[in-house]
Amino acid sequence: MRCPFCSYEDSRVIDSRSVENGASIRRRRECPQCSRRFTTYEKYEETPLVVNKKDGRRELFDSTKLFSGLLKAFEKRPVSMETIQDMAHEIERELRLKGEAEVTSREIGELVMEHLEKTDQIAYVRFASVYRQFADVQNFMQELQRIMANNKTDNIKK
Question: How far is residue 100's CA from residue 58's CA, in Å, rounded to a whole number?
């Protein structure tokens, strides 16, 4: 690996650690020429995942957009950043495990909804209100009633 400071052709690895749940490796390196240290990340090359949008457009899957949507849903909720990151990684992993080069934005939204409903119902309702584009309070109330009915069913089973 070329040194980013002096452009020397080689460097040595000082430390390696697995990051992102084993999806990549973080390496601390040192240049034998200038003795400066720097960090590199090694990650397997993923096949691009294309998202088919509702309006017919196609764009590359952006994990940053997924993470930012989750952050908005969990805003001011007692959910750790680690949990949110893990959820984003899990959703992306599930999409990639389908083995298809293209997914619909609807598939992504439904997968996010499943994960949110299991984790935090307030975050779920926040996301659902935007994702399902509730037209009025009636639509919102119907979704809340569905969640409350599921909670009653879950409590009875316990």
Answer: 14
Question: DSSP assignment of 47-62, as one string?
Answer: PP-EEE-TTS-EEE--
Structure tokens at 52: 């088919």
DSSP 11-58: -EEEEEEEETTTTEEEEEEE-TTT--EEEEEEEPPPPP-EEE-TTS-E
pLDDT, tens digit (0-9, with 9 covering 90-100), for 88-142: 999 999 999 888 999 999 999 999 999 998 999 889 888 887 777 766 677 777 7
- What is the Cα 33 distance to its own chain's centre? 39
Cα separation, 134 vs 28, whole angstroms: 49
| pLDDT category of residue 145 using cuts at 50, 70 and 90 | confident
pTM: 0.63
User: What is the structure's pLDDT at 150?
Assistant: 76
- At position 156, the amino acid (one-letter code) is I
Look-up of token digits 């984790």: 119
Work out the burial of residue 103: count CB atoms within 10 Å of its CB; fewer than 13 is exposed, 13-18 middle, 19 or more buried. middle
